[in-house]
Amino acid sequence: MSLPPAALPAVHLSAPRYVLGEQVADHTSIDNLLERARRFKMAPRAELWGWGAIRRTAKSLEALAVESARATVAAAGADPAGIDCLILCSTRFPGGPRTHGGFVEKVMSGIGLVDAAVTGLTLNRCTNLLTGIRTAHALVAAGTHRRVLVVTTDRVTDESVRMENFALFSDGSASCLISADPLGADTYEILAGAAAQDPTSLDWSHEISSELARTVNRRILDAVGMKLDEIDGLLHPNLFKPLIALKERQAGFTRQQLHLDNITRFGHCFAADPLINLVDRHDAGELRPGGHYLLASSVPGSRVGVLLRASSPVTPDRGEN
């Protein structure tokens, strides 16, 4: 049986950072956009769905990972040699067992990691990052590791599927440090986390579930003795606007708790969206010290959430990504 949050030592998420594909393009640059829309029975109305810009990259997955991770390490003021664990997430690692060692070596050497234990996460799809953060939280709380760098990196390799029936995809990477002590200027205490699954609905053909979201909300809020309206903001995935508005409202959130702006700005960046949205709301001065913010992501058959408390004054000091 897991210990309640109050019985665990404090663990912090620090210096979240992200990078997006360097090529900015309008959604109209997606060659088969209208064909895909017809296939998915979607009216071709950009304002309805939140179709706007997308971000493409010519960089490799490891180059994206290194770029965001180095930004996190620098912002945290951390020595890469002092990071003793790396959790590396992607929805699709390239190659197989013969190439994965080289992939990990490029990421580690690019960041400057010396002797960090490495864990790879992929089967959780677009909840990979939050699953990685929950894993890092458990490792630090247990004293197994002191500083865990969590990185997610993804890119579209087949342009014919840049549009799906739930989102337009952008390429990019996001990262953060999980440690016992807050590091850098923008830090958050991890108060609780939870996951919920329905194995019968894990197939890609199913919809995301508001019931699973309600289950995760209940588990997190019960653990910390809070109510849903005490959450200052939900940092959700950047799926199509009507889908997010419907599913998250059904889960109990209000329109004011949602953050829909980035759906139009650059769409869905795989597992990175909740952290990207946290960074952007911080930089816009929209987070309050002591405020409670829920990172959450859903895929068919699964929901993961991590509740944060902003533990330092919000002082935006970075330009837009």
Topology (elements, then pairings):
Layout: E1 12-20, E2 23-26, H1 33-39, H2 46-49, E3 53-56, H3 61-76, E4 85-89, H4 97-111, E5 117-121, H5 128-141, E6 147-154, E7 172-179, E8 187-197, H6 210-224, E9 233-235, H7 241-250, H8 261-266, H9 273-283, E10 292-299, E11 302-310
Helix pairs in contact: 3-4, 6-7
Would you write up a description of this structure?
Helix content is 31%, strand content 23%. The protein has 9 helices and 11 strands. The strands form 2 sheets. A 9-stranded mixed beta sheet has the order 5-4-6-7-1-8-11-10-9, sandwiched between helices. Strands 2-3 form a two-stranded antiparallel sheet. A hairpin with a 2-residue loop joins strand 10 and strand 11 (302-310). Helix 3 packs parallel to helix 4 and helix 6 (210-224) packs across helix 7.
